Inverse folding.
């Protein structure tokens, strides 16, 4: 899923930037009536706050100074708030302080106030009832959770604070000094909440510290003021609503400081994270967010009725702050379960992360970031005027002129023009994300009916059948009585109906085939209870259409999608067909995700195994989509799949080594040697990996250490988790095959391959060496392996003996793969791919010593052309055989994609087989096995 890119829209980013760039601010904060009041009321207290941008340490010093002036602690907190906001007005409006500095200062004020309030509450309650104790005598903690902007450290200057109170465990207090007045933890922490409110939220002659809102707690205003961690977890599982996931996205324990420092607050992560971020791609939240946004807009509209000025609400009106927050939060919640690097609280940071993840064009993220900063700064100036929690532009001309000047605009008209431009960008992006497809993504009648509030779409499958082609209608008719369909919720069943309607419309228009629709039906039926996939296809018509094209092109994609359904989200990427696999970027992305899991304590072994598998499956699917769409050649597909395998081996090795208990050095001195299709960079979909492990390490226990390391690596690659596996691993090509050691020292490997001693490699193993390469290892290990390989393939050989052994091996392979029925097997029949491979191996082993161009492992096609250029083949024969090999690979590749036999009508491959047979006759035809 991506957000639409701005170029091509009615708004031009460059023009917008020019239109909204302000001049320097020369504004006097004294215009603010709030600033005037503070300066009149607290002239002697103003000096208590140290100069500069207020930080927590400055505020703590100011509290002490206020205490010395005779202010009790609760009064001092209220006065401190007045001083901090007066300072922020000056630094923001007169000295152009950054938005981040201002919001952090207000956030730290709230954290300090709540920490002080907790300390006062616990002291009073402990004296009355004793401390709340856990089993074992440890004090049970209360966690004050800041929600929304407080959790994200984004508080505005006149903000209220949304809090939720959670305590560690139910139990009983210790009692007072006499052992009496014991109460339950529930009662104790309920009293603590009221005490904290009195300290922070009560209005006195000095005002409030903050307005406190507890409406986001479980069960809202009807729920208890404090809940246990166990009760919170049960609430999430049984009653938690979709909109609450957005609320908890920015949650953070902000007090008491001691509970944060001791680490007990980490216990909340295990409860909150699975609630907010689901393991799958969660497109079902779209409609929940639509409903929430409709409620907010309806409420704003009612408030504005009869008050036209309220339409200029920079937070809640169209294109306001809330729509930016919703846009980025939706992207985070949908994908944050599988992509932990998206989990961040601050809006501006989240925008950069979703852009880096490719979910939003960088230009769009930048435009939204600029709009967010602009609107938040406007919001602050509105609130500086009278210290009111309002987001509506002032109606007084002098206030509006001051606001414009403080934003750096010499005229009100210039300011309003910039405001409108920013809001238009926000509204357009938000409407596209929640309201339907972007321009250019989907056209025609099949694109209608995306929304759940479309009455015409509320129908059943029976009424859709007459509009469908016969076979599809018969297939869909079976769903009318299917238990999985009958068990669906009404809104999910409506989604299914609309998808069928859209598919039928596209078949009528000729955009997709009925065969594709039948395959989609086969694919989606087992997944009907996983509602997120129906939601994705409904919300993203472009994904739906691309999926149908993919399924219509071949059978194997449907099987892959059934095994790994979550990868269909990759079809939403606008860059899918324009990009190739990038190992460096892939590695960086996975390391970012691992780091994100580590920060939240979720980087256990199972989580990392699943992380590797999801990334691998998604990349294979991206390659598959490019392949089926004709963007990649067969050779490019093999290159990308081989590079992906190299990268997965490197990541697996690095992560396994870091978690190996008996590792004795920072980096392992080991290499992974790839053979066969991996070594030759000719991997296909589902290919296993032929690999050999060698080490070069003088440590006395090196053999034991690397054996454990290799077993761990193989387990990580092959074990099946809920996300499947990575590869099948075959180590049979190691010295002495399956009877040999799993990992061999490099010296022993070299002796074996170079036939030094009685235990030596066979000719067929030297054939395999022609396609071997070091796929993983440091520069020194790679260099040493290359030396061993070169010494093996350039060793002197007698032509007749070599030819006889290779022809004999070819005959054994043919016997193991008989071709029946008169067909032509593109791989194993005479004139097939194996003939080419054996000829190339013979040429390399016989002539590499005198023809250096044959030593490089560049693949059969390149080596055939080089052999011809070296005069080892008649003119034109190498090129003809190379072209034939490519053609046969294409036939094989297509057959495997479509899950059909690789035995074809001999006439269809006659010219290719003839070219290969000519090559065989020229090089090895004179030899009998």
């Amino acid at each position: 899923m991506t957000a639409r890119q701005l170029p091509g829209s009615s708004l031009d980013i460059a023009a917008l930037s020019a239109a909204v760039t302000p001049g320097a601010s020369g504004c006097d904060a004294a215009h603010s009536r709030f600033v005037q009041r503070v300066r009149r009321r607290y002239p002697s207290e103003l000096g208590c706050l140290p100069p500069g941008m207020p930080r927590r340490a400055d505020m703590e010093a100011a509290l002490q100074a206020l205490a010395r002036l005779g202010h009790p602690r609760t009064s001092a907190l209220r006065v401190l708030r007045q001083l901090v906001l007066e300072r922020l007005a000056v630094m923001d409006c007169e000295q152009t302080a950054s938005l981040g500095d201002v919001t952090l200062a207000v956030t730290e004020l709230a954290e300090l106030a709540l920490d002080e309030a907790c300390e006062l509450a616990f002291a009073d309650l402990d004296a009355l009832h004793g401390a709340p104790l856990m089993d074992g005598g440890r004090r049970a903690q209360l966690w004050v959770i800041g929600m929304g902007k407080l959790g994200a450290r984004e508080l505005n200057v006149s903000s209220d604070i949304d809090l939720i109170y959670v305590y560690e465990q139910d139990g009983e207090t210790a009692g007072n000094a006499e052992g009496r007045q014991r109460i339950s933890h529930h009662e104790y922490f309920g009293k603590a909440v009221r005490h904290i409110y009195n300290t922070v939220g009560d209005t006195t002659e000095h005002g409030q510290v903050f307005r406190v809102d507890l409406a986001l707690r479980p069960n809202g205003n009807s729920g208890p003021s404090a809940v246990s961690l166990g009760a919170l977890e049960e609430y999430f599982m049984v009653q938690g609503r979709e909109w609450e996931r957005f609320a908890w996205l920015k949650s953070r324990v902000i007090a008491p400081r001691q509970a944060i420092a001791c680490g007990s607050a980490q216990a909340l992560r295990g409860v909150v994270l699975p609630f907010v971020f689901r393991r799958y791609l969660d497109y079902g939240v779209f409609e929940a967010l639509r409903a929430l946004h409709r409620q907010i807009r309806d409420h704003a509209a009612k408030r504005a009725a009869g008050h036209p000025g309220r339409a200029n609400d920079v937070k809640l009106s169209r294109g306001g702050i809330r729509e930016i927050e919703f846009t980025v939060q939706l992207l985070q919640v949908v994908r944050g379960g599988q992509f932990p690097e998206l989990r961040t609280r601050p809006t501006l940071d989240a925008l950069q992360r979703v852009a880096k993840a490719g979910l939003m064009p960088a230009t769009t993220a930048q435009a939204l970031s600029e709009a967010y900063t602009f609107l938040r700064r406007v919001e602050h100036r509105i609130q500086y005027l009278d210290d009111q929690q309002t987001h509506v532009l002032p109606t007084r001309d002098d206030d509006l002129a001051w606001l414009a000047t403080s934003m750096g605009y010499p005229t009100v008209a210039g300011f309003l023009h910039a405001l409108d431009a920013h809001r238009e960008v926000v509204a357009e992006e938000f409407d596209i994300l929640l309201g339907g497809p972007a321009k250019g993504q989907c056209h025609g009648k099949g694109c209608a009916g995306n929304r759940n509030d479309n009455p015409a779409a509320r129908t059943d499958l029976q009424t859709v059948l007459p509009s469908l082609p016969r076979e599809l209608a018969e297939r869909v008719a079976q769903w009318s009585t299917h238990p999985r369909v009958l068990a669906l919720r009404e809104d999910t069943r409506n989604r299914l109906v609309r998808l069928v309607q859209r598919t039928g419309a596209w078949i009528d228009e000729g955009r997709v085939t009925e065969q594709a629709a039948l395959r989609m039906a086969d694919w989606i039926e087992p997944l009907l209870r996983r509602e997120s996939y129906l939601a994705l296809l409904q919300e993203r018509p472009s994904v739906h259409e691309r999926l149908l094209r993919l399924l219509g092109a071949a059978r194997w994609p449907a099987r892959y999608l059934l095994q790994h359904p979550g990868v269909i989200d990759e079809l939403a990427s606008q860059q899918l067909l324009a990009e190739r696999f990038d190992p460096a970027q892939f590695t960086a992305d996975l390391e970012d995700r691992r780091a994100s899991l580590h920060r939240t304590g979720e980087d256990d072994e199972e989580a990392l195994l699943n992380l590797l598998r999801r990334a691998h499956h998604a990349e294979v699917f991206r390659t598959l989509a490019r392949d089926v769409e004709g963007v990649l050649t067969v050779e490019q597909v093999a290159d990308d799949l081989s590079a992906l395998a190299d990268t997965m081996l490197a990541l697996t090795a690095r992560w396994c080594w870091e978690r190996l208990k008996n590792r004795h050095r920072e980096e392992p001195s080991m290499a992974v040697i790839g053979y066969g299709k991996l070594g030759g960079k000719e991997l296909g979909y589902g290919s296993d990996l032929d690999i050999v492990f060698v080490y070069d390490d003088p440590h006395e226990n090196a053999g034991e250490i690397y054996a454990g390391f290799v077993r761990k690596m193989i387990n990580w690659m092959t074990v099946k988790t809920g996300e499947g596996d990575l590869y099948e691993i075959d180590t049979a090509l190691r010295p002495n095959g399956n009877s040999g050691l799993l990992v061999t020292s490099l010296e022993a490997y070299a002796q074996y391959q170079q036939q030094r001693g009685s235990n030596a490699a066979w000719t067929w193993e030297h054939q395999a060496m022609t396609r071997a390469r070091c796929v993983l290892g440091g520069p020194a290990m790679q260099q040493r392996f290359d030396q061993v390989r070169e010494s093996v393939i350039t060793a002197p050989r007698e032509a007749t003996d070599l030819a006889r052994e290779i022809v004999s091996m070819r005959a054994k392979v043919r016997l193991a793969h008989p071709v029946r029925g008169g067909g032509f097997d593109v791989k194993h029949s005479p004139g097939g791919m194996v003939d080419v491979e054996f000829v190339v191996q013979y040429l390399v082993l016989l002539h590499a010593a005198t023809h250096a161009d044959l030593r490089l492992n560049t693949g059969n096609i390149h080596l055939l052309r080089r052999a011809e250029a070296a005069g080892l083949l008649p003119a034109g024969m190498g090129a003809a055989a190379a072209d034939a090999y490519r053609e046969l690979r294409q036939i094989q590749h297509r057959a495997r994609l479509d899950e059909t036999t690789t035995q074809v009508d001999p006439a269809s491959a006659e010219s290719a087989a003839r070219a290969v047979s000519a090559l065989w006759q020229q090089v090895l035809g004179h030899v009998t096995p």
